[in-house]
Every structure is written in C-alpha cells, then in structure tokens.
Structures
1.
Amino acid sequence: MKQEAPRINIERSIIKDYRKTIWKPFVKGIQEYRMIEDGDRVAVCISGGKDSMLLAKCLQQLKRQSDTKFELEFIIMDPGYQAENRRLIEENAALMNIPVRIFDSDIFNIVVDVTQSPCYLCARMRRGYLYSHAKELGCNKIALRHHFLETYDREESQE
C-alpha cells in the first residue's frame, strides 16, 4: 500500500483524531461569532510555528467544507530570519500544501538596539506590517494564531 502524503495525514488527523479538542471548538467559534462571512478575504498570518500552521490548515479545511464563500491568503512576514529558519518555514508550508506569500521587513534590524520594551515595539511593528500587507492583498480580515480572526480596521492601521 502506497504511503499517503504527509499533508493528507495532517488534514485527516485534524478532522478525526482532534475532532473534539480542535476541530469542533474551532468551527463552533467561527460560527458562533460569525467570524467569516460570504465575500470575506482573510489574510492568514503565519509565523512558522505549530499554532499558526494549525490555524492555516483549519481554515483550509473550513473553506473546503463550508457553504460560506470566502477567500484565503496565507502570508508570512520575514522580520529578518536566518536563512535556515526561513527555509524550514517554506519547506513546512510546502509539505502541508499551504501556498504562502512571504514578504520581507527589517523589524529585527530596527529593534536590535532598543533596550526598553523591544518585544512591545516588535509586536506593534509586526502587526502594522501584517495589516498593511493584508490591505495590499485586498483582505478585509486577518487571522492570527493568538487572536484567531480580527476584522481589519482601516482607521486603526493608520495610527
């Protein structure tokens, strides 16, 4: 018997093995809070970690199974990763059939010499870059691993 592609096993496990702990609560939250509606274009922001990759896979599965018509853009902001880290993120995305768009920023270079609250500054800048890039792609919502889904607020992004 031919071994199945890893992405097939990943997709199947989300629906079957993790149905009660991940898939059903995910779908319930999306439905209960009407996070995705017809016509939405959602930028799925991927850091490369397991949480954001799982979110991407769940949203791909939801798009396949849902009656709601929406589009997904999978974006990765490279804040200055080392080459091997970026390559690993790209390889994992390809393995899981997540069609990512990677864009570069210079956030790491900007915050390297900041001594007071560099993490806060980095997080604010990261969010700004992600909102800006989502807007360029025509997205009206972004999905983040910690916050799941937010409505894109054009006024907030201009602060």
2.
Amino acid sequence: MFVREVTPDEGRRLQKITKTSKQPIRMRRAIVVMASAHRQPVPAIARLMQVSEAYVRQVIHDFNERGFDALDPKWSAGRPSKVDRATRERIACIARCCPRDLGWPFSAWSLSKLREVLATNNIAEISRETLRKLLKAEGVSWQAVKTWKAGTDPEFATKMDRILDLYDHRPADGRVVCVDEFGPLNLQPRAGRGWFPRRKPRRLRATYHRTQGVRHLLGALDLATGKIHYRIRDRKRWQEFLGLLKSLRARWPGERLYVIADNFSPHKRAEVRDWAADHDVELVFLPTYSSWLNWIESEFAALRYFALNGTDHRSHGEQDAAIGAYIRWYNQHARPKRDFAVNSKIRRPDYLPKVA
C-alpha cells in the first residue's frame, strides 16, 4: 500500500517539516509519508525508520484520511495529579512554618524531613522531587535567613520623606551630595571572585599579623553628575569630615549644598554644624539604623567588589592608588543619579506598619 498522490506544494511542505520541525513525532511521520510518496514499500520504510509495519500503515491511512492534521502528535493528559489544590496550599503553608512550632525537634525543613512528616500525617505520599517542584510552583524557595534592625528614630518617616524628596526633586538653588566614610582600609588579602581554569582558583596568602595600621576613605557622591569625590586619611575625626565639606564647598561656590549623612558623632560636632550654617551647607541626617537610605552606600559596595576584592596590597600607597584608579574610571563613566528605589517597599504608604 502507498500514500495517496501528493501534490508538488504538499511535497515541499513535507520536506520543510522533515528539516525544521522541533517535534520528533511530526518529523518521523512526515518522513514516512514522503517515503511512501516515492513508492517505497511498507517493509522498507519500517526498516529505515526502525518502527513496526503496523505503525507505517497507520500513518499512511491517517494521512490519506485527514491530510497534514494526521502528522500532529495527539498529546494525552497524562497521569492525574496525586495532590489537589487544597493539599498543595496546605503543604506550602507547612513548609513556611518553623518545624518547632508544629512540635518537631528541628529548626528547618529538609525535603526528606518534610516528605516524612507529610506521609506520617497522611497529608500526601509524594517523592522528594515532586515536593521540590510543588514548593517551587507555590512560590516557596530555600533562602538564607537575614537580620533586620528596626529604626528607633521617632522622626523616621519625616526624615525618610525629606531624603526621598531630595532624591526625587533636586532643589533648584543647589545640589544634593551624599557623604560617608568607607573603611577601615587595612592591608590584608581580600577574598573575591574571578574567571579561572576549572579547579585552579587564584591563591592568596594568609596573614596573621598586620602592623601597618588602617586608613579611611571619606567619600561624597554628587547626584547631579553621579561622580564620586574622595579623600583618604589616617583618621576619621570631625576635623577630617570638616575638611571634606570645605573641599566640596570650594568645588561648587555659590550653590547651596544639601549634604546627606548618617548619625556618626563627628558629623554632628558643634564645630561642623556651626561651619555648615555659616557657609550655606545644610546637613540632612538619616534616620537611625537607616544607612540604606544613603545613596553612596551602593557605590561603596561596587568599590569594594571591583577595587578591593581579590587583591593583596602590601602597602597603603599601593592600595590607595588602586582605589583612586577605580574612582577615576568610575567618574569617566558616571551618569546623573535618578530613580532611587522606585519599586521598593519603602515607597508604599504601609511601609512603616509592615516594616518588620
């Protein structure tokens, strides 16, 4: 038996399916039809495709009756799920609970322990892999526990709104500058990541005695340009902080400076406050335990990652030069800072009630 007469257009379509189809079943059936159209006998096609002769005859019959629809695989619904919707939600709820709260003597679930508990309580008899997929589908994932420090500032909302307003609406009479200290900068091998041959990571020495002291970087991020201005000093007293403010004042004469800083005691020194009031500099302090509101913190994280991690500087001069080279490169690629934490939970009206 052979397939019906195939038109030239149908032949070209069959040939295209055999070359481009991503479904093996559809491709195999198209090859059977093409071979039959070339008057290949059923036994020869079965040997070529390594299928039974009954399969070849069925494909030819189906194509003669239904045309190209016969090439499409008919997917079955598969095995019915052993876990219904309510049970899936219950399993996800159990996984989110601490085991001790449910009377079990451990502080975290493993897939094996959770599977055993589900079976013991006649909730579900499923494998670990099925349990893993179920939890993933329900939005439950294995994550590290993080710490959180609650802000105790009674003016938290007022101060946060003030800073966010400066970020979102730059004042027309001046510029916003975020300042902070970075350090201490001691001399030690710093762990990091890089691209190395497999199983041959870069090795750094181990140190036990560090006798060259530490230094500190005082940085200022100008939001109008996105550039970082910095000084590296041996100490970070109010005198060094005031020196940084004076350098910023000299850099932008005639503009009012809105300096965002944390509550480090040298920042609130009377001498610093008096000088700022006399030189058109407004010090805008963060709420307590809210350093994440200072935009320069993200730039310090990048500085640590790209300039210090994976290094082993032997002198402060060498380390200072590496930091300076990175900041110069950063400033050459800097852009104005905009859109601070646009989609963050801190922007929601109910942030404070739900902050914990």
3.
Amino acid sequence: MKFSISRSQFIKTLNDVQRAIASKATIPILTGLKIAVSETGVTLTGSDADISIEATITQSDEKAQLLIEEPGNIVLPARFFGEIVKRLPEDQMTLTVGEGFQTTITSGTSSFNLNGLDANGYPHLPEIDAENKLTLPADILKQIISQTVIAVSNQESRPILTGVHILVKDNQLLAVATDSHRLSQRKLEINNGQGLEYDVIIPGKSLTELSKIITDDLEEVDLRITENQVLFTAGPIKFYSRLLEGNYPDTDRLIPHDATTTIEFNTQKLLASVERASLLSHASQNNVVRLVLDPEAKEGTIYSNSPELGNVQESLAFENLTGEKLDISFNPDYMKDALRSFGPTDIKVAFTSALRPFTLVPSEDEENFIQLITPVRTF
C-alpha cells in the first residue's frame, strides 16, 4: 500500500475521524485508525464501538493532491500517528506499508516507521439499508442538537435519559430530552418524510460529536436508521451511532398548558441578569436564584445570596407581565443553558405555581420550541 497526499487536507479528515477513537478500548484494535486505500480514494475509519466515523478523501478532490500508487489496508495507532502527521515538516506526505505491516511516513527530510496491524481484525461497520433516508438541512440539524442535548442526563443510573428521543411521523420531527429536572423539546416540519416513521433514542454524546463535524459549508445531512444503529451522512463523512434500548418516558404530560403568571423578556438581557446573580449563587451550597414577580406593581426582581460572601438584588427589564404574584426559586445553570439555546430573541415564560415546572418559549414561534425547568423548593 502506498499513497501521497496533502498533509493539511489529510489532517482535516483525520481530526473528524479521531473524534470516535478512544485512548482506551475494550477491543484493543479500536485504539487504532483504519486506513483503506482503493483505486479512487483513501478512507479513514475510527470507532469506539458506540460511535464510528468513516471519511473518504477522493482523487477528484483537487485540494487533496492525492496520488495512489498501490491500494491496501492498515490499522495504525491513532494517537501516535496523529501526532506524527501534525508535526511533519512539509505539506506533502507519503505513507507506505511494507512487509509485516511496517508503515513508513515520510515528508521532506523526515521519515517515521510505525508498527501497524492487520486491518482484517478491525470490526466491520454496521450495514444500514440505504433505501429509506431522511434529509435534513445541516444548519437546522445542528441547531436542534444544540437545543436538546443540554437537557440530557449525565447519570448512568437511568441510561435512557442520556439520549435524545427522536420521533418522526406525519412529516414532523420531534426531538426531546430530559434529565427529570429540565426538558427541551423541538418540533420541525419536514417535506421529504415520505411516510417515514422513526421512534429512536440517540445518545446525547453521539449527537454532540456529530454536531462538531457539521460545518458551515455543508448543506444537507442524510439520516438512516435500523434496529439498533443510526447513520448520518454529512458530505464525505459517515457517522454511525448505536441507539439506546428501552422506552422513553411520556414527556407530554410534564408540559403544563395553563399558566397563572406570564412574562416576556429579551433573552440576552435576562441571561445577563441571571449570570450576574449566579456569581454569588455558585458560592453557596444550594446554587439557587430567586425570582419575584408582582404584576400589580409591574415589578420583577431577581435575588441571590451566599452566606459567606453577601447577596445581590436586581430589578429586571421585561414586557407584558400578567397574572398572579409569584415567588419562585430555580437553578441558574439550568436557566442559563435554556436561555442560550434561544439565541437573540424575545421569550415568553409561563408559571403555574412556585413548585410546578415553568416553561420558556420563543415569543414568535411558541409551538415548535419549548424549554421546561423544575423549580427548587427552598422551604
């Protein structure tokens, strides 16, 4: 096996694939990077058994300056190989595999030898039926991921909550995540559903890694699903992830539909106020911020205190405060995550009582995106 390639272009692809490679793996060969060279291109594969990433550099890509002299396959130690490639002196590099999987990497006056492994020992990637696929705009998919993964659980005691529940039915996609303290739900009308129906749970960690390889110049991402695997195709990159097994809890019942107090905020102004209040709440063991709303007096005030440091009180700027007087406490970190997910817009916050979850929705698109936060009992 032998090929030469532009090192800068190779590194871009290598960085994407390395996201799937763990430094330690139950299957030792999975700490390696698989390189498969055909007559038309070079394919890099990385996997940690939960996610797998495969990316191909083709000869038709002029930037790659790819010259294939001999096809073949090899698995190289990913961490060391990556460090070597990034430190080579010239932009053009050549990789040659000789007898006994001895691999030579050369660039300019530099030459490295690495011991490779037989690629036949590398696990096969799942075979996923290419017939049924859902195509989503890349920027919208990235936005959905960022808006929902913030609410997945980090606790392995309930594995099902570490994923995002994806429902596709009647040309609508629903993505929802909850860690039982907060919830994020996003809806999207899709034009090319073609009668597809999906009900799957994708690990939040997988979606976070997928989001990192969705670049601004990418237009669409294809999604294909089998019984226990999902495949995202993003340009030259194929991203595989296992699915979580089990039934996701019924989250519809968690979302209140009535409100006793509602208020509208500019997201950025409220976020800044919560960030200031959390400076002191983080110094306290409870990490709680208190919000008091008084519709009659047309006042909204945020409070926080730390017995060791002091306290903060700030009057809030808002629009359209209606309903009953309210005194509620919440985790400011949950609130900051929720507010950042809306971007620069106005939101409506609806409360039912001091002890019931409250909702945040964008003022102009209430139906398609909702964040829910459970308050903190302080007495």
